[in-house]
Amino acid sequence: MALSVPGYSPSFRKPPETLRLRRKRVRSLEAAASPREQPEPAPRRAALAAGLLLRPFPAAAGRGGGGPAAARRNPFARLDNRPPAAAEPPDGPPRGQQEAQDPCLDSNQENDLLWEEKFPERTAVAELVQTPQVSFSKSDIPSSESTELPVDWSIKTRLLFTSSQPFTWADHLKAQEEAQGIIQHCRATEVTLPQSIQDPKLSTELRCAFQQSLIYWLHPAFPWLPLFPRIGADRKMTGKISPWSNDETLQHILMSDWSVSFTSLYNLLKTKLCPYFYVCTYQFTILFRAAGLAGNDVITALVSPTTRGIREAMKNEGIEFSLPLIKENGYQKKKTSGTSLGNGEEQVISDDDEDESFSWLEEIGVQDKIKKPDILSIKLRREKHEVQMDHRPESVVLVKGMNTLTLLNFLINSKSLIASSGPQAGLPPTLLSPVAFRGATMQMLKARSVNVKTQAVSGYKDQFSLEITGPIMPHSLHSVTMLLKSSQNGSFSAGLYTHEPTAVFNICLPVNKILDKETLQEELGNCGLHPKTLDQLSQIPTLGKSSLRLVELSDFVYNWRS
Length: 562
What we know:
Belongs to the DONSON family. It comes from Lynx canadensis (Canada lynx). This is DNA replication fork stabilization factor DONSON. It is found in: Nucleus. InterPro entries: Donson. The chain has about 550 residues and is an alpha+beta fold. Among the domains are: about 155-215 and about 445-560, no CATH class; about 220-325 and about 385-440, no CATH class. About 35% of the residues lie in helices and about 15% in strands. A hairpin with a 4-residue loop joins β4 and β5. The protein is extended and about 110 Å long. About 25% of the residues are buried.
């Protein structure tokens, strides 16, 4: 008598036996579904006529017929590495009939069939791998077309232009051309180039104008320190020499000198001799714009990103400001009866709402038995939405008119403007301007051209590129694109890399009064910008919280994506 083994089941089948039964079942079903079956033997027909239940008769090829065997698949390959099925001829039998006619599949193919039968989602994954990859990038979104680019108030850190024509004209300027470009910038000389230049390398005007478009003004200036960008720049500044970090006397001297330069810039802006400038701190960036730019008839200042502490400090100093993005969303919240929107903001609870929420307790006479939330918890609940939007684009602050002067005094006297520890400790904020100001240092954007070979259908072709790095402000971007439009015969493409905290400066602000071109040129004609550049900067921003990422010029028509 056989001994009983604990855990032994007589009905247990090993996995190979189970798979073998499943393969037989699949073959039987395919043979039964196939319309082209072999004629059944006479004894089988007689048994069926007598009413006996028999299993379906397999096809002749299933009994080891002479059909060609399919190529065996590598058992160590992944399931998604199977060779794609060959296309069926239009006049051939359906796939099911082909499988029925040639069921001599190897064990790996049969296992694949069982896998697909048991896990249909795996089959869908395998089909997705075999199909061509579909990209859902922003390039699928139709871009805009125009003969001019929209105004972009963000600061770019890198521009990469590519063209089928060389950029060698931008390299190795002569000493006379470099000097002429600097003089043209200081005197705000207007340079007008033809629509298309046949030989850019021989055009002295083009090379001088290119040198002119690369100049910007900076304060403070330390050659061994990267002073832009300042947000998130601690890693780049680590290990650099900073003698002012532990010297309060030197910090006071640097801050005093910075205050003079900052005041000088604001006075130039107020008298419309400077179109705009940036103040870059380790926490936020400020864009000051003169009256007449971006559709505003007063001086405006945009601060981004901000925190609740900065906004509270500005309120305490009497600075009137607004949150343009929050104001718009708050209006939408009222229309949707308090439903939340997708910017991480919470519904604002007013004092009247809180009073009304507890009034029903007095009506039923249980106001003394129910514990009300204390004043502190109510205040924290109201300010929850303000904390959640900190360091986000929605926290951008708009200051207009004479409040910008109060903002100037606040920034000069604020101790939180300078980092108290870390690599940026004691270092004043960076001032960036398109025109000269008191204490400023002239700087140059770095430009270099590269020639590479790219693979084409017929072999290799030349691809030329021009790279510009540095704090690229809006006027420089417009000037460079105007020059390249002439030098590259109206055909090039460009990748633009944005300093992300400044992308929100492209939001559309409430427009008070739009100045016509004649009035604009009369009031801002001495600000040092080209008339076409000034005309572009006077446009109302349309990019919202985004910025230009890709620009393509073809036949003097711009195509861009943001």
